[in-house]
Fold this protein.
Amino acid sequence: MEPKEYRSSIMERRKEVLASLGNLGAKIYEQIDRGFFPSIEMPSRSTENIYYDPKFRQYILGDKRVKRSARNIRHLKPFAQLVWTALFSYELTSQRKTSTLRDVYYSAQAYEMTFKDQQESNNIITDLETVLGFSREDFNIFPEERSAVFGDLTISYTVPGYEGKTLNLTSHPDGVMIGPALTSADFVETSADKVIAIEKGGLFTRFIEENVHKKFNAILVLTAGQAPRATRHFIGRLNRELRLPVYVFTDGDPWGMHIAMVIISGSANAAHLRDLTTPDAKWSGVWATDIVNYKLPTDPLDEIDMKRLYELQKDPRYKEDPLWQREIKTFMKIKRKAEQEAFSRYGLTYIVDEYLPAKLEETK
Amino acid sequence: MEPKEYRSSIMERRKEVLASLGNLGAKIYEQIDRGFFPSIEMPSRSTENIYYDPKFRQYILGDKRVKRSARNIRHLKPFAQLVWTALFSYELTSQRKTSTLRDVYYSAQAYEMTFKDQQESNNIITDLETVLGFSREDFNIFPEERSAVFGDLTISYTVPGYEGKTLNLTSHPDGVMIGPALTSADFVETSADKVIAIEKGGLFTRFIEENVHKKFNAILVLTAGQAPRATRHFIGRLNRELRLPVYVFTDGDPWGMHIAMVIISGSANAAHLRDLTTPDAKWSGVWATDIVNYKLPTDPLDEIDMKRLYELQKDPRYKEDPLWQREIKTFMKIKRKAEQEAFSRYGLTYIVDEYLPAKLEETK
């Protein structure tokens, strides 16, 4: 099935997920009723079927398909595992309980369904995403929480016990966690006109303390390193539903650059999904050229950093915008990296008073 | 100076911190006025001056003292660094801005104060803690946020822009971050009669979803691995100010066991401080004996796990309560470990329905 277009109502989306899981079950029953061995077809996720698509500005799957049939003895186990995972996901979603990848692996034992290891169960969950075109967060399998948000956005919860309750995301000045309740909430109202995503907790706290949310009308998102998928989905919703431009601030090194890229264009692992990306988001810094222009304190790039730069240079996502190639080349030339905190050499508020407005203007 | 006894009012504590920093400065001026080379004395933090104290149930510093004098050419740089750090901390605290260890390192450059590397600046910050008897969070140098809290506790903020505003910590069902605003808030009201600290995000979410906060009248704290110091301080405040017993749930392995121990008895690194520990907190599981009794799915203990067990066996903190030695021996015997999520083999809610009430009763 084709990945789903975005829908604004969370409740509607949940209904679609349940209908989609119900259909999968109905098809299997139908095949059995008609005397056939049941089978499930889905796009192949093998490397040779993954392409970068400039239109979607992300990796997508090609036309190759695979079939899991109960007729084939080698398919029988993964077929049963996939059907069990669909059943378990249906239970989670309809009972509105959430789970983690790890929990799913252990839960299988309660049903006498065996997975060799967690890698095997993770892989079957990705199969189910591919079959349905929904991401696992849609059927309530969430990553561990670690990212946070702060800013003038009022949300309305849809989780049990909180239906219709609202919260303004400036209520707690350390920020609130981005977990199942937040990601399944509807957006009610905002005065913000942009989203600023930040890699590190120290800077997130600084931005709140310096009233960046007010001075720049911004919703602040802490990615806490590589943004978890639920956070990328949330950033995407802020961009699509509220039409807010997104600016990403990371450390000035290949890893920070790639944190921004994965928010913008996603990863090859999620080529079977659509709404985890925010193609119009901007990487606003710390660029290699910022390191030079702002004379930042630096550390040398080590061998692993350099190897990573060569990989990124060849990556199709890094060929979309000449900015990326320019910055990669500058990193290679200066052979230095700098952290976001390095701006503190000019005083704690320099990053907010000088750097941030300059970069927001430059990457508008 | 002796570590400070706990004070309930956050504002009063801030005044004390500022007074203490002011005194340090005044003493230095006085010495100079009287024609002496200025010097600063503090307890030695060298290994031979760190003792386990059964009364405090934590490591403390002994009687050995060290002196940093501007008269000694080798002391001159660390003396200046310490005085600068006190100045910077005074600015932070009086302007009510926060900073991170990393920010302090870079900020020094704005003052033309040089540190060889971050290790050197971290070390000087610890010196300042030792001199003052306050922890760095008291003078507004915070770790990065990553832990969270959820439960019926109403807090009143003291941070700028939020003075006197209150928030009930059930407002956001994914939990709110434990950062500078939360840790500096006063406690107003709670219906909770216990605190449950949890190592992992997946289980924290499960507990909220299953209404553990209501069913067990509990405030839930996510430590997100080893609890950051600000979180240990917060847990300690819940215990001392609200007189709530604290139960800690971790993975069933030496690392989980030690997460609980550090909440209870602190670390040798913080022997110069007092209020980061919660000596009456209980480690409620996952014990090695739980792995046996509940027949949990396990993984083998590897060499590093076993080595860690031998270290812990000899650690004086692990000799306080026979529970620890029994569990260490059981781990060594079964040579297996289990995660908190392993209970999902009996269904997602088994951990809340069966295990949690049994263990709360057992460790009461």
